[in-house]
Amino acid sequence: MSDRSTNPVTETETSNLKRQNPIIIEESNSESKKQKTEAEVLTSEESKRNDSGTEEKKQKQQQIAAEKEFKIEANAAEDKGSRHSMEDAWVVLLDASLDSPPGKLRCAHFAIYDGHGGRLAAEYAQKNLHKNVVSSGLPRELLDVKAAKKAILDGFRKTDESLLQESTSGGWQDGATAVCVWVLGQKVFIANIGDAKAVLARSSIIDGSQNHPDGVSPLKAIVLTREHKAIYPQERARIQKAGGSVSSNGRLQGRLEVSRAFGDRHFKKVGVVATPDIHSFDLTDREHFIILGCDGLWGVFGPSDAVEFIQKLLKEGLTVAAVSRRLVREAVIERRCKDNCTAIIIVFKHS
């Protein structure tokens, strides 16, 4: 098992980390200070334009004020299990703006890429997907849900297209599933392809203070993703329409279990796509944490089981880094996960 711990970083180091695999436990503050302007005598038209600008500034200020209400802490842990090599890759970016200076809207990004047939596709997506999403128009000033989802969709498409070109020229055929989260302001976006999964821990009432015998308020596990496997009717129909087939063992062309993935260039002509399911929700006091995990983790942990396990450790005062290590250790050592196992825990701390 390898855990990536966090040390204080300078602005230069933070900039470099954005292009790598950082774990930053302190919340990044990207707020811009209000700029004062001298009073001017305005014409009627100028006044209208100023009113419009004032309203836009007010919306931005309201967004910034809302973001002050919670902090994000996140960490990841991994273990190759009984496999000979580690084919997972992951990203934890608490400041994922990639802007200098950053936009008004807080942007954080988290992802797990579960490779198969090798690690190259997972590493390629790790290095390129978020950059492609940002360059595709991910909102940075005012939240626009439609624009954000389009940017994520376009980012997945661009990443897969360039990955396929890279794999063709390099002569490799690796593939990778993905589960990704973007936090924009107080809106969370989840995108996935394949069988990696995201689970949300949510309380049943706003302040989460309902009584419970052991002193811990139970949290509900909400699965945020839909698995894409060739055996599922909707995916099977799409594969067959594309000219592929699903064998009796539930695998595409008798070989590939997942029906959506980055890479897998030889299967792209027979139904494998990299089109993600994308969902979003607003952060409130009810949302406590999100667990991202590859299929190795979810093969030995049920959603409710994982939420209860993590909630108990957080209640005991363990750090997010320690909890992520304990979760993966439990999966591999105690529950005998044979596959690569990677988990990211994203905790929302409300003021």
UniProtKB/TrEMBL annotation:
It is an enzyme of class 3 (hydrolase). Signal peptide: none annotated. Residues 1-65 are annotated as: Disordered. This is protein-serine/threonine phosphatase. Belongs to the PP2C family. It catalyses: O-phospho-L-seryl-[protein] + H2O = L-seryl-[protein] + phosphate; O-phospho-L-threonyl-[protein] + H2O = L-threonyl-[protein] + phosphate. The keyword Methyltransferase does not apply. It comes from Populus euphratica.
